[in-house]
Amino acid sequence: MKISKIMKITGIGNYFPKKILTNNDLEKMIDTSDEWITTRTGIKQRRIAAEDESTSAMAAKAARKAIKGAGLKPSDIELIMVATITPDMNFPSTACLVQAEIKAFNAASLDIGAACSGYVYGLSIARAYIASGVYKNILLIGAEKLTSITDWTDRNTCVLFGDGAGACVLQPGYTNSGIQSILLGSDGRKGGLLYIPAGGSKMPSNQQTVNEHLHFIKMKGSELFKVAVTKMTEAAVGALEMCGMTPDDIDMLVPHQANIRIIRAVGKKLKLSDERVYTNIEHYGNMSSASIATALNEAVIKGRIRKGNIAVLTAFGGGLTWGACVIKW
Ligand code: COA
Questions:
Q1: Which is the CATH superfamily of the domain at 6-176?
Q2: Ligand 1 atom closest to Cα of residue 288
Q3: Are 172 and 9 in contact (CB under 8 A)?
Q4: pLDDT band at 175 (very low <50, low <70, confident <90, very high)
Q5: Domain 179-328 of CATH type 3.30.930.10
Q6: How does 264-277 read in b/e, with b if 16+ C-beta sit within 10 Å?
Q7: Is the Cβ atom of 116 under 6 angstroms away from ligand 1?
Q8: Does pTM surpass 0.85?
Q9: Taking the domains of the chain in order of start, what are their residue ranges?
Q10: CB of 32 shorter than 6 A to ligand 1
């Protein structure tokens, strides 16, 4: 059997819930303004999943499109990975729930816990399996219902997040296009900058944790901002160096969509014009692992990334984690 060292994205799919929450809607809920949110974050609106619409349900919808796009059937999929910080429940894994939903019964299933960098971590795991010849058809999904862990009384965080899912099918490639390099990193010492205190084994749920809003995202925004700019830039440059390239080679940077000012700062450090940096934060806010997934898919669907282009993904998130990936499309 011929084993390919190159991995290709052969199918893509996005799903966004229907309900839109605009900045003007938020003005009626908390002490904020469209002007503050727009200038400080770049976000104009975000999607909100229905109460009974879970992360796995959104993931399954994106997954079906990606599998169809790759010309496969769910039964062809050998591994399902879901990057998420909003699993339907602690276990079974969201990947197992997706498997049941899409009827991909020949697959192994696992979730990836790397927060907003989860999709890039997932690409790296998939590449290791493909390069070693273990699997040939892998489904990777970044899916989040962040509004389920958002404190709607905290204006520092609730304006930032949204829901959605992006998926891809990954297969061996036999030309030189596909994933060229992936660089990952983490710093567990800075985990306290972005986390959910309660609901795990360290602080199990009780009436007090609920009363004190400890099941929601806690964030030190301005400290994260600086680390995000540095790490996303370093990761992109490092991943490019791994395959003998420089930022000049980038046709389209697809950064994690946490804040337009972070994105612009990274673009500036890499000396990229705005046209070479893809953003969808204005429509969807920060969707953690689903941000890079959906932004990459959207850029391809809209023709902003075309055959032969060099696309660079660069991500940053809770953990802290970061990662970048160079793709020749
Ligand atoms: N509406 C109006 N005012 C708000 C507000 C809101 N929604 N949220 C915060 N403010 C206020 C603050 O209370 C503060 O007021 P004060 O000066 O009277 O105390 C002021 O705005 C400035 O707050 P600050 O935190 O300094 O703003 P900022 O410019 O750092 O922007 C973030 C805040 C959260 C948008 C920004 O820090 C950020 O995006 N950080 C990175 C977050 C991130 O990347 N998270 C995910 C990583 S994957």
A1: Thiolase/Chalcone synthase (3.40.47.10)
A2: 48
A3: no
A4: confident
A5: no
A6: bbbbebbebeeebb
A7: yes
A8: yes
A9: 6-176, 179-328
A10: yes
